[in-house]
Structure formats: structure tokens, C-alpha cells
Amino acid sequence: MNEMSFGEVVQKRRAYRSLEKVEITEEQVKELAETAQQAPSCYNNQPWNFVFVRKKEKLEEMYEVMSSTNEWTRNSSMIVAVFSKKDDDCVVKDREYHQFDTGLGTAFLVLKATEMGLVAHPIAGFDEGETKKVLDIPDDYQVITLVIVGKHSEEIKDELTEHQAKTEKERPERNTLDEFVHLDDFGRTENF
Ligand SMILES: Cc1cc2nc3c(=O)[nH]c(=O)nc-3n(C[C@H](O)[C@H](O)[C@H](O)COP(=O)(O)O)c2cc1C
After folding, report:
1. pLDDT per residue over 129-148, tens digit each?
2. Which CATH number is 155's domain given?
3. Is the C-beta atom of 166 inside 6 A of ligand 1?
4. Atom of ligand 1 nearest to the CA of 14
5. Whose CA is nearest to atom 11 of ligand 1?
6. How far is CA 166 from its chain centroid?
7. What is the span of the domain harbouring residue 18?
8. Does 172 map to a domain?
9. Cα–Cα distance list, 38 to 102, 112, 140, 179 (Å)
10. Is residue 44, in this structure, part of any structural domain at all?
């Protein structure tokens, strides 16, 4: 697995929803944390926090905080709650950096998990208040995402909606480069 190039890791990463249970060791949790630790952040503030949930009983409680279209998360083996707060990072006029920096740390973690042969799928469809209760996270933090971790299953699981089942096979389409790449100023996007 460690022989994958960066490009291969990027290509391999997918937000799969068909998962099967796999054992995730404390050593793997440490490797994921050490990778996130190396992410850049404003003033090196490192605002990110992660709760790595692996215990069966706790996972069962976490499955209850999911929105109805995230039933597929029940087959996950670990859930990483990602949270931070505004006061722990730069605020430059109206630019608040804690979510951006925590996103960078999370991206590192997601790519490392991919290299380790795991699925690491961030979601927004969960109840934040309930998550804080289950995990004992203080109220002044914002839970930004839950990263759903597991082993990819080739079998399409029943919990997936029809649309979700379709996207298991094909990566959802991306915008073309000329829709988001600007050359020298905002107006120039041609030649891509
Ligand atoms: C912030 C964020 C929130 C997301 N929320 C959900 C979610 O609640 N449920 C879900 O099934 N997928 C969720 N996704 C996954 C996206 O739908 C997925 O990444 C996107 O469709 C692109 O597919 P790909 O990651 O396989 O390339 C989320 C992704 C991100 C980054």
C-alpha cells in the first residue's frame, strides 16, 4: 500500500458508502493523527481536534446522530469527529481560519487513510448537538464534519439510495478546469 504515489492516492480516494467492518488498530489511529499533525495552519495555530470513535457501543450511539440519507454509515468501523473553534485560530477582519485549517488537517487524514487502504468519507449530514452530547464535546466548539471510516465493499449495501448506489461505480462528475481556474485575473479562463 505504501508504494502508492501521491497521484494514485488522490485518484483512489472516493467517498464510498458501501462499507464492511474492518479492525482499525491504535497504531493506525496514531498514523492518521501524525499525518494530520503535519498540515499547515495560520500562525501554526493547529486548531483541529479529532475524536476517534472505535468502541462498538459508542459507534452505535453515533449511528443515531446521522441524517436519514446517511444510514450507510452503520457499516463503518470508525468515526472521526472533527471540531475546532474560532478563538483557536486567526481571524483577519472577517476571515475566520479555523474551519479552513481544520479542513487542511482533515484532508491530510483522509488521504493517509486512503493510502492505508481504508475509505475515509467526510459527511455534513449529522446532528451537531447530539454529536456533542454523545462525545462530550464542549459547546463552544463547532463540529465541522464526521469522517466515516471503513473498508470498501464491492457489494452494494441495502442502506444506499438509488443515487448513492450509482455513484459507487462512477466518481461524480467534476466541474471543468475553465469553470474554476482563472489565469492572471478573474476574467481569463480560456485555454484550458
Ligand atoms: C463537507 C462534506 C460533506 C459531505 N456530506 C455528505 C453526507 O452527509 N452524506 C454523504 O453520503 N456524502 C457526503 N459527502 C460526500 C460527497 O458527496 C462526495 O465527496 C462528492 O459527491 C464527491 O464524490 P467523491 O468524493 O467520491 O469523489 C460530503 C463531502 C464533504 C467534503
Report:
1. 999 999 999 999 999 999 99
2. 3.40.109.10
3. no
4. 26
5. 70
6. 21
7. 6-160
8. no
9. 12, 12, 25, 31
10. yes
- Which pTM value belongs to this model? 0.97
Rounded to 10 deg, the angle between the 98-115 and 26-37 helix axes is: 130
Q: Is 171 in the pocket of ligand 1 (CB under 6 A)?
A: yes
145 Cβ inside 6 Å of ligand 1? yes
Domain count, the chain: 1
Could you give the maximum distance between any two Cα atoms of the chain, in Å? 54
Residue 27 lies in a domain: yes
- pLDDT tens, residue by residue, 52-102: 999 999 999 999 999 999 999 999 999 999 999 999 999 999 999 999 999
Q: Is the CB of 17 under 6 A from ligand 1?
A: yes
Residue 84 is inside which H or E element, if any? strand 78-84
14 lines ligand 1 (CB under 6 A): yes
Residue 113 lies in a domain: yes
